[in-house]
Amino acid sequence: MNKNFCYTSFQLSVYLIFIASVSCSPTKNQNYPISEANYWTNDKREKYLKNREDSITWDKQMFDDDMKWIDDLPSGPFQEGVFPEPKYDLHGKFKGVGNMSGQYKVNGKTILMNSFFQNASTINEHYLDTLKNDVFFHIVVLTDTLDIVNYNHLSSIIISRNHPDYLGQGFYKTKNNLIDYSAFITAERESYAIVNTRLFNLKYGKTILIAPQKDKSLRSLQIKSTKISKDEVVNYTQELLKKEEIIRFFTNENAI
């Protein structure tokens, strides 16, 4: 599939698995020149919006490639659509997006994690400093369901078609519930997520914990973390799950 979409599949093990990140382009630790000219501006946003409506700027080859898969695009929670998009290079070089996921145990209960990241580029370098990439959304979910045959208990995708804005989405299935989530980040560093209609402004914490309850209701915790790279997020999650507050959140008598 010749698309700048990133998909994940999961292989499960007994205690803890690390799922290798999927990146749409190689990650390189390049030293981008830092100058005001590289920062995303209101003028660049206005130009981007105009280019969306201007067929002269569209990447026709990318559109034709996407149309080949229009009947096979995955859904969940939002059905993917095929729109003509401006050529990526008109708005800053595309350096890749991806995800990093994992599985953990807390007092015998299964915890699943997923995260979305974007690679360093001239658009975000002033925020990333020396990081090669930036995790902009990190979800940690309690579950009682693992499908180790068809792996249909979860799904995840991150999409670059809104470059220089990026969107990721996915779901987790439990025995009595479905956890849908979607998150995005813009070139202006605005980032939000939705988990089963609950809104999260990620400026106040990119880490979202979800604990489904036995009565089918949900509980959430939002945690403000420091900058995290894709290479750090697995260990960060592991350390987070050792905290007493987090253990109680996932293992209280009302949680599944």
Automatic annotation (TrEMBL):
Name of this chain's protein: Uncharacterized protein
Origin species: Winogradskyella aurantia
